[in-house]
Fold prephenate dehydrogenase.
Amino acid sequence: MSAIYDRVALIGLGLIAGSMARAMREKGLAREIVGHARSAETRATAAEIGLVDRVFETAAEAVAGADLVVLAVPVGAMGDVAAEIAPHLAPGATVTDVGSVKQAVVQAVAPHLPDGVHFIPGHPLAGTEHSGPRSGFASLFQNRWWLFTPTEGCDPLALERLQDLVRRFGAKTERMDAAHHDLVLAVTSHTPHLIAYTMVGVADHLKRVTESEVVEYSAAGFRDFTRIAASDPTMWRDVFLQNKDAVLDILGRFTEELFVLQRAIRMGDGQHLFDYFTRTRAIRRGIIEAGQDTAAPDFGRSQPGPGEG
Ligand code: NAP
């Protein structure tokens, strides 16, 4: 298979960048892959396991001569990284990001980038609760969506080339407006994460149930919550701070629904509960039919998990 880019620079060497590096290697999609991470420890690990061909101490050095630059750092760090690399980008290079929030990233990154550099914001709907340079794997993006939110005037050839890359990872691509992306993700990912964090927090505070009972008798629902609530704290702090409006909107709606269900339980309105759960069951069926999860009893959680973030 022929290479799509000559030199790809990965800024941030965690789960997503590491999975991209492995997928590019496996399929020969880049002639050279270079990278940078903030800490000396992560850079040393990346070099030791050969995650990329060369590791640089600074992001500025890493992006020099790259025809694709991928920003794979927490969304709150994107702006500073963009400011640092901007003077060092090669003319005609494409810069993309993999951040879980799009409007805030566009606002933070776009003003720094020079004319002649193509900025194409993106977001793979794929992840696990693991992070760091050792956590990635080449098949992470298989059959997952990779959403792009190109701004007006985006170069169609640069976009097609980038979409071609991620399709070769096995991903499906779609373009949408950044504000719409943020609302969709607030519903499908960000608010559910917040609910999981809250539920695990509730169990933690409930001293009448001992810690050993929570662990010992952990049933499927709670177990799934704990898996989600084990996700990287930095990444998720940034997601909520950067997608504030959409998350608060969905959280408001969630709270209203919760009160309705709470009232139905208090009033013994079984019909309401039954009808509600019948509707939600159909949504679950739709997700399985769309190939976005498995109907296996453990939800396939022994396999790499479906899209997070
Ligand atoms: P991760 O495994 O925690 O890796 C983050 C990487 O960014 C680390 O290598 C870290 O370096 C580096 N980094 C942090 N701040 C930096 C800075 N200021 N300058 C340079 N490097 C910096 O995270 P991830 O899961 O790959 O997430 C990366 C991005 O992908 C985030 O924007 C996230 O929203 C998005 N995303 C995540 C998922 C998911 O489920 N995990 C899914 C889709 C999209 P050190 O190790 O040295 O700190």
In short: Residues 11-17, 37-39, 42, 72-75, 77, 80-81, 98-100, 123-124, 127, 131-132, 232, 235, 239, 308-309 surround NAP (CB under 6 Å).
